[in-house]
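Narrative of accomplishments. A recurring question from our advisory board has been how the design workflow behaves on a single, concrete structure rather than in aggregate. To address it, we present the structure tokens for one chain from the evaluation set, followed by the sequence designed for it. No filtering or post-editing was applied between the two.
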């Protein structure tokens, strides 16, 4: 099923883009939870971590490497990545995405 992130990838819905390559797209979250809140998503349609396959191994590593580059380019030394998987865990958009959150003190444990 097409999600809002598919529409962002296709350009149907605009986004505040931070980074883009042939495998992924990163853009600012529309409802930021911290001074820096960026989402990095694969161009490939994968609903959540529950659906990843062995063949996605390289892509998943790529997303994390890009997350590090993006966080560093935003000047973040301390930052958090979040991947919500499933409704009970807070996932609202069923297209895999990594939250990159930083720019303020982050508490633990999360809610
Ligand atoms: P989830 O709750 O699924 O882990 O995260 C989905 C995130 O997508 C939320 O933080 C939400 O603010 C963000 N989001 C939802 N719709 C849009 C949109 O149209 N544009 C952008 N940039 N972010 C969105």
């Amino acid at each position: 099923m097409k999600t809002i992130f598919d529409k962002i990838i296709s350009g149907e819905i605009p986004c505040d883009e931070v980074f883009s390559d042939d495998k992924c797209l990163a853009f600012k979250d529309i409802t930021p939870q911290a001074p820096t809140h960026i989402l990095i998503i694969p161009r490939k349609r994968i609903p959540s971590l529950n659906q990843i396959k062995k063949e996605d191994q390289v892509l998943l590593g790529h997303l994390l490497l890009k997350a590090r580059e993006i966080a560093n380019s935003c000047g973040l030394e301390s930052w958090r990545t979040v991947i919500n998987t499933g409704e009970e865990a807070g996932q609202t958009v069923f297209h895999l995405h990594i939250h990159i959150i930083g720019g303020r003190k982050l508490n633990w444990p999360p809610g």
